[in-house]
Amino acid sequence: MYNKEINLLQEKPEEEYTTDKRSIKTDIILVVAFVVLIWGVFTYAIILSKQEESLNQKLTEKEQIINGMKEKEYLYRTAKLKIAAVEEIINKRADLVPILDFVEKTTKLIEETTPEGIDLESIEVPNLNTINIMGNAEDSSILDTFITLLTEEDLKFNFKQIKILSLNRNKDKIYTYNLSLVLEEPMTEK
Amino acid sequence: MKKQPFYLSPVFVVLVMAVFSFIALKAKYEEIMEKRNTIEEVKIKLTRLIAKEELLNQIDPITFKPKVELSIEAIPSEKDFPNFMTTFDFLAKEASVSVIALQTSPGKVSTEGAELASLAEKSQSLPLNIVIEGKLTNIKAFLNKMMSSLPLQSLQSFTFSFDWKNKGEDNLAKDVFGKVTANFAQAFYYSFIPKELGKVADPISEITKTEEDLFGIIAGYFKAPKGGAFITSGKEDPFSKL
After folding, report:
1. pLDDT in the model for residue B205
2. CATH T-level topology, domain B77-193+207-228
3. Looking at chain A from residue 39 to 58, which residues have their Cβ under 8 Å from any Cβ of chain B?
């Protein structure tokens, strides 16, 4: 029987023998690779654990430092909260300079340009986009002149629209007018 | 028949290893992924804390406190009605205008009611309707002063009424524009300060350059001298202090 096996080995062609050797080598490489892979994974997990531990320690330290600065944080937060509100209010609130200029110039216009035929009862700013002017005029042509003067005067505002909201003639034949000037941009500070 | 020797074929080995890897390494892989996520979170937290620490380290409480006080003067933390009234009264006297009427709807007088309705809301307003009378120049001076005084206030709407018919008849109407009655809807502001700081890791929004400049602007604003002692209204019994 042994002789038979020896014969079998002896009978094996050279090519087949080389292939077998190569298969064993590949198997060994794969097994080693597998072992390395497992070792690598476990080592990586250990490294991550250590990194996590170190980061957590740093985090705790920083938290303690920041906890020690509570008074500063409170001051800072308060100032931030308030100043952000201040900014919002200042940006949204009405810019009084052009409005007051407008009031002054309009009253002067009435006083100096058309003193007899027209008067001004009130100037109303119901919102930051509109100016309403109310008063009395002797006839509609004087009102036309007044509107023309309003548009020609440098009033620091660009009007998108000038509307005659109402024009009523009373029993004394006087026209009561109500003009609405719609601005192109709201009269805010910013 | 020729007997084949038993060698693991590479494909078979790969398959076996894949199965083994899956079983043996699955748990470890999950652990690694979890750790990586935790590390990422901790890193983000740490970055925030470092930034927060740097920011807080820059603050010198001695130089910063006046800014805080100034900002509280601009927008009080409660409905400081007596202060608003004192300011208003002082400005009216300074500008020589007469107060004809004053109306407000303060809602809940208690400070507890001063909590903001939403986070987007930075402050709340206390409405005030005022009617004043005077020369146009004085009213202008009053308004200009009002807009550059603390606590911060704004005009919501207004009406100027001109008394042309009686022009020149009384002292007030000697002005070029006659006697003017101004009716304002204005607002004072207040904002509630949270009593707690929140979590340590909560970031602080930095004070921007524009906001920093605003401190300079409002520092130049007029502050009315504090009036007499007022009884604070609210939950406490105001009479207990008398």
Report:
1. 81
2. Alpha-Beta Plaits (3.30.70)
3. 41-42, 44-45, 48-49, 51-52, 55-56, 58
The identity of residue A31, as a single letter, is V
- The shortest CB-CB distance from A48 to any of B36, B56, B68 is to B36
Across the A/B interface, how many CB contacts are shorter than 8 Å?
204
Q: What are all long-range contacts of B138-143, with beta carbons under 8 Å and residues at least 24 apart?
A: B138/B95, B138/B96, B138/B97, B139/B95, B139/B97, B139/B180, B139/B182, B140/A100, B140/A104, B141/B95, B142/B91, B142/B92, B142/B94, B142/B95, B142/B97, B143/A96, B143/A100, B143/B182
CATH of domain A96-183: 3.90.1520.10
**Which of A7, A52, A76, A105 to mutate: most B Cβ within 10 Å?**
A76
Chain length of chain B:
242
Distance from CA of A128 to the nearest CA of B (A): 8
Task: Read off the tokens for B193.
Answer: 């300060």
Instruction: Say whether pLDDT at B39 is over 90.
Output: yes
Q: Please list every residue in chain A whose beta carbon sits closer than 8 Å to the beta carbon of residue B24.
A: 38
Mean pLDDT rounded to a whole number for chain B: 76
